[in-house]
Amino acid sequence: MSDTSGWYYCLTHQTVEKGKGCRGGDRMGPYPDEAAAARALEIARERTRAADEADRKFRGDDED
Fold it and tell me: Is residue 60 within 8 Å of residue 54, measured between CB atoms?
């Protein structure tokens, strides 16, 4: 069940939504505020880069 009061980013419409909106599978969130929801794709890219870097360090790929 999704939070009906949070902010979301709709991947289908590429818009920010508050509360109920498009189906959960089409949304990212919830986010604490509208500005964070608007940055959803950027936040996801940042988190992916950080996780990829952590994986490289764990495997030792960053050592010379």
Answer: no
| Residue 10 β-bridge partners | 15, 27
Q: From CA 33, how far away is CA 10, in angstroms rounded?
A: 14
**Strands, DSSP E only, in 1-64?**
7-10, 15-18, 27-31
Q: Are the beta carbons of 28 and 20 closer than 8 angstroms?
A: no
Nearest to 4 by CA among 13, 12, 22, 14: 22
Please give the pLDDT value at position 61. 83
Against a cut of 0.70, is the pTM above it? yes
Compute the mean pLDDT over every residue in the chain, rounded to the nearest whole number.
91
Region 26-34: mean pLDDT is 96
Quote helix, strand, coil % in the chain, to nearest 5.
Answer: 45, 20, 35
